[in-house]
Design a protein that fits this description.
The termini are far apart. Helices cover about 40% and strands about 10% of the residues. The strands form 2 sheets. The protein has a 5-stranded parallel sheet. The chain has about 400 residues and is α/β, with parallel strands linked by helices.
Length: about 400
């Protein structure tokens, strides 16, 4: 089987080995990369060194698979993925108690914390692995739960691992960050790790040997950015598409995209019809090209004044009609004007024959109720200024400095 877009020939597979679900305990052989982080967790569990670790990684970076594969080293594995938002710290302790001891949860918080600490010290060879990974819980709820439960978590004889995303880490207060012994950031896979991941997944679904070329590994790494979930999703979809296309080619014939099926014609008849259609189209195109070329050829021996223009000039009336959107017929307008009735003579004329001037002041001004401003209105109306009078300005000889011209009436 060949993957579309890649030069990969897969052997016969019993199933699609690329699943985006996190690896479970017992699938450690399929895990690739992050050997340093996994090795430190294993060392703390076996050496009975209680630690609090903070792992920072995006969704799909393989953080859950890393911790589940590390669980095989611990005598007890506790995984908390959800808590209540109403009482975050108490809900965290209840989940821890139910998985570490039993479901008979004490009502008192002090008794609850005491029994959890006592149970963690009961293991003699190795210590438990407690993982707090709550991707669906809001960051504020996680912060409150860690802050309130931190004194009890520090008393546990266990390896406590808290998993957060990069944006959640930036929100956590310094008091919580300083309580962790180390902060581990999950980096993307390298090209060699991508190659090993694909080879191990394919080998788990076949009995034949399989090796991926470095060129294909580089191409897949460039598409996925080294993110494990993207690598697995790309390979899963590629195998599904290859299997589906192979089934269509060998079993299911591809039907034409029509609402009905036409009877199939022999191949020779179809070829003849296609050739006849092509010949007709070519002949028609040659005729159109010849007609266009003939219409554009002008005899150079004819003087330019005698040449006939190839541009059809539209009449003036047609141009006006095209501009204004209606037909303009001057002859029809003249005929309709003769049929119009004469205008009636009005009792007054808009252009009087005499030169009589109507003086506006001949009529008394209208009465206006100005209230308390009646006297001021009267003075304003009674003021008249002769347009011919002009103030006579004289020079003030007594003033010094700049010249000052004032009205003669003020002297």
């Amino acid at each position: 089987m060949r993957v579309e877009g890649l030069q990969i020939d897969f052997p016969t597979l019993t199933e699609n080995p690329f699943s985006t679900s996190p690896l479970e305990t017992g699938q450690e052989s399929l895990y690739v990369g992050r050997l340093d982080v996994r090795g430190r967790i294993s060392k703390h569990i076996n050496f009975r060194s209680n630690r609090r670790l903070l792992i920072v990684g995006e969704m799909g970076s393989g953080r859950t698979s890393l911790l589940r594969c590390s669980a095989s080293e611990a005598p007890v594995y506790v995984h908390i993925d959800h808590i209540s938002a109403s009482r975050p710290a108490h809900s965290l302790l209840e989940n821890l108690y139910s998985q570490l001891i039993d479901y008979n949860i004490p009502q008192s918080r002090a008794e609850l914390a005491h029994k959890i600490v006592e149970a963690s010290h009961a293991y003699t060879s190795k210590i438990p692995l407690i993982v707090i990974d709550m991707p669906t819980v809001e960051t504020s709820v996680v912060t409150v739960a860690l802050r309130d439960a931190l004194p009890m978590l520090e008393r546990l004889k266990a390896v406590v691992v808290v998993v957060v995303e990069p944006k959640q880490r930036s929100i956590l207060p310094d008091s919580i960050l300083h309580s962790f012994a180390s902060i581990e950031t999950l980096e993307p896979l390298t090209i060699d790790e991508v190659k090993v991941l694909i080879e191990r997944r394919v080998s788990s679904a076949t009995s034949r040997d399989f090796q991926l070329s470095t060129t294909d590994a580089q191409y897949i790494h460039s598409l996925s950015g080294g993110k494990p979930s993207e690598v697995i999703r790309f390979m899963r979809d590629s195998i599904d598409v290859s299997l589906h296309s192979g089934a269509q080619n060998h079993v299911i014939p591809k039907l034409p995209n029509r609402t009905y099926l036409e009877p199939e014609q022999p191949q020779e008849i179809q070829q003849i019809e296609q050739e006849e259609f092509t010949e007709i189209v070519n002949t028609q195109l040659e005729k159109e090209v010849d007609s266009v070329l003939e219409s554009e050829i002008i005899d150079a021996s004819i003087p330019w004044q005698e040449r006939v223009s190839k541009i059809d000039i539209q009449p003036y009336n047609d141009t006006v009609s095209d501009i204004f959107g209606f037909d303009l017929d001057l002859g029809e307008l003249s005929d309709s004007k003769l049929e119009d009735e004469p205008l009636e003579t009005l009792p007054y004329s808009a252009t009087p024959e005499n030169e009589e001037i109507i003086i506006a002041d001949s009529n008394p001004p209208p009465s206006i109720n100005a209230g308390t401003f009646h006297a001021l209105l009267g003075r304003t109306r009674g003021y008249k200024k002769d347009s011919d009078e002009q103030d006579i300005m004289v020079k003030d000889e007594e003033s010094s400095g700049a010249e000052l011209w004032i009205s003669e009436e003020l002297i």
